[in-house]
Structure formats: C-alpha cells, structure tokens
Amino acid sequence: MSTSEVQQSGNDFFTNGVRIVKLTDWMDWAICAETSQEKWAIVLPMIQRGSVWKPHQVIDLWDTILRGMPFGGLMASLIPADTNIQFFHPLDRSKSIRLTKGGLSLIDGQQRTLAMLIAWPDVSDQMQRRIWVDFGEDDTYDHVLRLHFTSESSPMGYQRAGPSGQVIARLSLNERRLANATYADRMQSASAQKTANKVKLRYLHDEEIAPWHSTFALDLRTLLVYRGNTDELRKYVHEQAHLVKQKLEHRITQIQSKQAPFDTYNDDLKNAILKHLNKRFDFIKQLKDDDPKTDDPNLERRIRTLADGLALMAQQHFPVIEVPERLMEAKEADERKDPPLAVLFKRIGTGGTDLKTADYVFSVLKHLNPECHNLVEQQFSNPAIAALYSPTNLVMSAVRLTAAKLKKEDQAKLDKSQFTRLLRGDKADSSQDSKQSAFYIEFNEQIKVGGEFVENLNEVLNLVAYLPSNEGYSNTAAPDIGLPLHALSLIQIPALEVILYWIQESQISISSDLPNNRHAFVRFLLCWHLTVLDAIKATRECFKLLANKTFTQFPEAFLFKALIANGLALPICRPQILLQQQVLPIRTTRDDKSGSCAELVYSSKTVSGLRGWRRFEVSGEIAQNDPQRQAVQLYRRWWNLRGGHIHPMLLWLQRDYIFKNFQQIPAQPGTEDDTPYDFDHICPYSHWGDWTGKKTDKTRLLDFHAENFDGGDKEGHWRLGNAIGNLRVWDSSVNRSDGDTAPAVKLKLDDVNDTRKVDSVITYETIGELRDETQAWRDCGPLSNKDYKEWSHGRACAFQTAIELRTFNLYQRFYVDLRFDELTDEIASVRNNNEIQNELKNVSAG
Predict the structure, then answer these.
(1) Average pLDDT score, the chain
(2) DSSP letters spanning 143-196
(3) Which of 32, 267, 487, 677 could form a disulfide with 651 if both were Cys (CB 3.0 to 4.6 A apart)?
C-alpha cells in the first residue's frame, strides 16, 4: 500500500497490526512538520520521558545504521482524526499539541528516534546533542568509523574509558580544565549568548570547538546533506579541512603569543594546550588544500566508508507494531493488580529501559490531565526549584503531600500499586472514573498556580535562600546562614517534605509566622544532610510524629530527639566533646603492642606519621548507641561522608563565595560533573595521589604512615588528601591556572590584601575556638628546590596537621554559625513519648 493510499484510507496505517516503514520517511514524520502529511506526524504520549540514552548507546545506534544492520521494531498507537487528547512534540517537551488530522503516538522507540534525529539536518538545530565523524583516525573498538558524542553538558565530548575502548566516560577533570582553557573565549561567548537571551536556548555549540579526543571531526548533521553524492561529500570534507587548518593555526598563534584571554596562562598550561592542538594540526596540514584527491589513503577510505553507510541508511526499513488503545488504560478494577498502562511499560521495559515509579506516576497524571505537564513546567521558572527538583521528583513530593492532606497512609517510597490505590479512591466503587477520585481532584488543586503545595514550596525555598551582606565573610563574623542557589544540592527532598508537611498541618500564617522559623529550617536541612542515616525511614517517622501533635513552631528538637532515639540519626556533638574522644591505639611497628590511644580530632606528636581510616574505629565492646561511638561516627561523616573528593557541605561553608560567583548561573540536580566550580584539592592531588614515590624509599609519602604494620591502614595519604579539610570549592576557570602550585601559593598566604584567602574558608589566626592553619599549609608544600612529589617526615606531618586543623575549624564554623548549642540544649529538654508515658505511669502508681 502506498503512502497516498494510506492517507486516503483514514485509519488504515497498520495492516494486521504492523507496518514496514522506511527510515527516512520515519524521520520526516518525526519532525511533526506542518504539511499535508501531518496526519502521520509522530508524537509522544504523556507517558514518555525525555532522552535518557547514554553516549555509547547513541554512538552504537548510528554505527548500526551506517552498517545497514537492523535495529529492531518500534511500537506506536494510531491517533484518529479529531482525537481530543494532548501529546508531546518529540523535539520540544515543553510543547503539548493536539493533532487534528490524526497521527502516530510513539509508545516504544522514543530513545532510538531521538538518537536518529540528532543528526537529521531539518531539525538538528533543535537538538541538544551532536554526533561527529572523525576522519583523522580509525575507531579503536568495532565501529566502522570513529564517532564522537557531545552534549550541552559536555561540549568537549567524552573519552573511551575501558581497556578495549568499549565504554565512554566523561573527560577527566584535568582534560576538562585543559579543554576549557583552550577555548575560553568561545565558551565565554556562548555563555554570554545564553545569559542575554531570556528564553531557554538550545545547545549553542561553537563551530570552532571539536570533541577533545578527536583529530579531524565533522558534525554528522552537515555530512548527511550529501547522502547519495560521494563526490560532493569528498569536496565538502576537504573544504572543511582547509577551514579547520586555518582556525587551528590562528588559535595556536594566539596561545603562543599569549594574546588575551590566554595572557594569564603559565608555561605548563600553554605547552599542554599547544601539544594537543599541534597533534590535530599536523594531520590536517598534510592534506592538499587545492586538490580533493588527497595523498592520504586513510582519509579517502573513511570518506568512502561514510558514503557507503549513508547509502545503506537510505535503504533501511524497520517494522512499526501497533499498540491498541485499550492497553493505554490507567486504571484496573482489581486493586491487587497493576493497570494495563503499567503492565505495558513493564513489558516494554524488559527489553529496554523500564519506567521508574516517579516516571509512571507523572505519566498517568499527565495522561488524565495534560495540563498537569504545563503546571509542573511553570514551577521551574523559579531557579531554586530547578536547582533542587526534577519534574518527576516534584510531582512525587506533591503526591505525598496530597495523600497526607487526605489522611491517607504515608508512603515515603511510593510504588505503582500504592499509587493506583490512591488514584482509585473508594474501594466500593471500582467503576468510578479516576478523575472523580478525591485524590485526583485534590492533587490538581495542590499543583495548580496558587495551590497550597506550590505556595508552601516557594515560600520555604525563598525563606532559606542566602541573604548577602555588604561586608561578606570575615574571620570575625559569619555570613548569613542561608543557602545560595548551588548549595540547594545539600537539601534532601525527604527532609524538605517534612517541613512542608508541618506547614500543611500546622495551619500557621505564611506571611507572619513562617519567617520566625528560618533558622530552624536551615539548621534542620543541614543537620539532616550530615546526621540522618536512612532518609526514607527517618522521613516516615517524622510524618508520624507530626500527625499526632500540633506545633506552633517547627519542632526540630522534638523530631531529632525521636530520630536519634530510634537509631535513624546521629546526635550533633559539641566540638568540645569531639576533642575528648579517643579511638583505637596507634602502633608504629608490628612489635609495638603498647601503642597509646589516639585522639579523634588531632594527631599528637607521639604519632610519628599519617593516620588512615582507623582513626574512626573504636573498641568493639562499645555499644552502637554509646555516645562515644556516635561521636566518632559523626566526625567520620564530617571528615568524608561520600568517600571521594566531593564535599557538598563546602557549598554552604563557602556560601558567600558561592553566592557572589555563581548565583546567576543556573543549577540543576544531578549535574555534579557540569558545574561552574570544582572541588579543588588545596594540597594538589598530584603531590600525594596516584603515584608510588621517586628516587629512594626515604622520599615517598607512603613511607610515613603511622600504622606501618600488617593489618594497619596503609592508605593514610588517601584518607587525608580527600578529607573535607583539604578541599575547597573554586571557580573552574580560575582553578585551571593553579595547576600543581604549592598550598601556600594557592591560598595566597603572603598576599594580605587578596580577598580569595577569605573565600577559601581558611583560618589565618587563632580566633576564639578556631586555630591558625597557615604555618601548616606552608610547611606541607614542596621541599625547597625539589620535586613536589618528594616528601620528608616533617612535610608529611605538616600535611596531616593542616588537614586536621582545617577539618575541625570547618566543623566549628558549622556548629557555631548555626547555633547548635541552642538545639542540643533543646533536645536535652524535650520529653519524648516514652518519657511522657513513663511519667504518667509513675503518677498513676503514686
């Protein structure tokens, strides 16, 4: 059946539930062009997500296409003409549309379709990702061509990470710094365009920037134009080689002569950039500018390979399988079973990517009320919400708070079946339309503009936001306690839901009463981040406690006392208490059985080396709920909560610096690798990290471990180097120029007037409970006129001292700035339910 016959026959797109479609036709339909063929426009139902494929999946699909290999069937549901249901435009999920002439609703195959559209010339400007063909080298894996992937979050591309090249990973931190330095002017220009444009822009990829690990890479979007014409393709590749050579030559000259913005680069940075650019330039300069018939047989072979692949793509067909409309139902009479919609995606997920509960919940709500999508998207005009939530997580919070308002059983971790029961409502009436259920009606009230959930969320986030002062931070006065935009990553959503639930239940005045709780809110959120051991169980317990009592002020002490009593959180310790804690004995040799018990916070002079993770081990005879064990466990979490070099608490500790430098830059959840700042080692990683030492054994940092015996912790340098005390948050563009410089240089210790000393949250003199760190940071630098990897016993001990001092100073700031003395006193005075019940029993017995 021809395409015209299909169009004339109305709903006869499928024959016996299937249709074989040409790949190029499918791409034309997928762009939803306003043409006479609109009836076959492909749209996404409300039950779809955005693109979730990883770079290697996109590259593998394009390699499959260029080989002419089959890539499986897709599933779609026919949309009859005049269907009064909204759908998503495949390329713009902020736009919901109705197809008056009918079309195809894509059920399974969204990821493959979006991956193919990346390089489709007619819509490529709308895509936030790019595929590149590298004509300068062969692929090291099993692809016919070397393909690269770039995105808005990784404009410099990715690297091959596996030993055989089969896994694609982000560029290393050093590579990202080097790439950003190479194209600093172009990146600044793109950033300025985004800032100037009030509308959210698509991917602005500067044409001069190529993937970092490429030699001579061209955008596949531009190459697809020449499918079917090998001679024109060859001519275009050579024209681009000439242009790329000119641009590389110009950039090399700029950097060699240190023209702005490269005038601040030191020689090491400059030479590293030139080495990278010259490698690419050396390949391209051998090509003849005026003769497409190159002397390089490899380039010609790669052009022919691409031309053959594009010809195979033009001949590619695949099956589209029909999904009946009855399978799109979001309700099920038997409450013990998932509705057809959930089962459908569970089955599809068996061979693809399953819908998580949050995706499914949002999908069903959009399916019932397409306006829900727009209502949720509107909330993300608030930068604070965009920094904290994804759309699905925002919906899950609204669902939980809606269920709580209706006095339904709290489900801190909702599953599909529980959501179905919420949506169904009255068990006695299984035929009730979901749109008539109390939950559905209340949810839409909560999520609409001016709804209670929306208003409360905005009020809380505004209330806890950082308030800058003219003076900024000093060693004598702390800045405002609020959270700047990028520090909102510290907020755990379950903790925020506890605050929102209290507001909902307390019925306090938002305008007059809520501001009185600002300090309690910030302290509660940060304390939760540090002390709570199981967020789901803890938030469930908090909901139970708040449901049974009425509080006119936010009861942070009451909640934390209950969490501590139930083993769900650790108590915040006064700094003086931490100083008194002792841990396992330190032995310096296998024969030394009389090691003295080491203090938790500082290493005494009798400990003649670096202490590892064993500093946080206490005797097994001490109970889990013993205050000493809890104090040690708390400080271990402070020292290094995650185990790596990422310390989000620094985003609050350096809050004035974060606000001044990054407040105007959008923040998004889950983008730690794509931030305007780095978590920078003060004593550089290259000084102490991934190496085994030089020259003799006497100059290796590894030789200065205190626990130098069998069974001892021999990773003391790792535990120290990645402690919070050796990290600071630092502007990525500034960080690249520091390189391997000594801590004293990075911290500007000798520049009294440099304000960046303050920005690093370093204590420069003994003030109150804070101890001076400066001498230790000087002493842990490289030995005079020697290599920075060369260590002495004195330098190793200074390395440990500096980190221990700063780690504890940071805890002091955390404890004092948030006035935890008030909270710990209040917790001690709170009577929990068990204490109250015991008192009542005593009174009764008396």
Answers:
(1) 82
(2) -SSEEEEEESS-TT-EEE-STTS--EEEPPHHHHHHHHHHTHHHHHHHHHHHHH
(3) 487
Reported as a single tens digit per residue, the pLDDT across 690-739 is: 665 555 667 888 888 887 776 677 778 888 999 999 999 998 767 666 66
Collapsed DSSP state (helix, strand, coil) of residue 823? helix
pLDDT reported for residue 725: 97
Given a cut of 80, whether residue 198 has pLDDT beyond it is no
Give the pLDDT band of residue 490 (cuts 50, 70, 90).
very high
- Higher-confidence residue of 264 and 760: namely 760
Element (H or E) spanning 304, and its range?
Answer: helix 297-314
> Roughly what angle, to the nearest 10 degrees, separates helices 230-256 and 267-284?
160
What's the Cα-to-Cα distance from 638 to each of 463, 529, 650, 717, 822, rounded to whole Å?
26, 10, 11, 18, 20
Residue 43 phi, psi (nearest 5): -125, 170
- 761-806 per-position pLDDT tens digit: 999 889 889 999 999 999 999 987 668 888 888 999 999 999 999 9
Distances (CA, A) of 175 to 146, 156, 179, 604: 20, 9, 6, 39
C-alpha to C-alpha distances, 818 to 521, 526, 627, nearest whole angstrom: 11, 9, 22
Distance between CA atoms of 329 and 344, rounded to whole angstroms? 10
Q: How distant, in Å, are the alpha carbons of 220, 222, 240, 270, 813 from that of 120?
A: 8, 9, 20, 38, 54
Amino acid at 423: L
CA distance 166 to 298: 23
700-713 burial, b at 16+ Cβ within 10 Å, e below that, comes to bbbbbbbbbeeebb
Looking at residue 725, its amino acid is G
pLDDT in tens, 803-821: 999 999 999 999 999 999 9
Query: Nearest CA to 36 among 89, 101, 87, 92?
Result: 101
- Tokens representing 8 are 């004339």
Average pLDDT over residues 296-304: 90
Residue 569 is predicted with a pLDDT of 96
Burial 175-187 (b: 16+ CB within 10 A, else e): bbbbbbbbbbebb
User: Do 642 and 747 meet the contact criterion of CB atoms below 8 Å apart?
Assistant: no
- Closest by Cα among 351, 532, 33 to 25: 33
- Residue 352, judged by CB atoms within 10 A of its CB (0-12, 13-18, 19+), counts as middle
Q: Name the band, by pLDDT with cuts 50, 70 and 90, for residue 92.
A: low
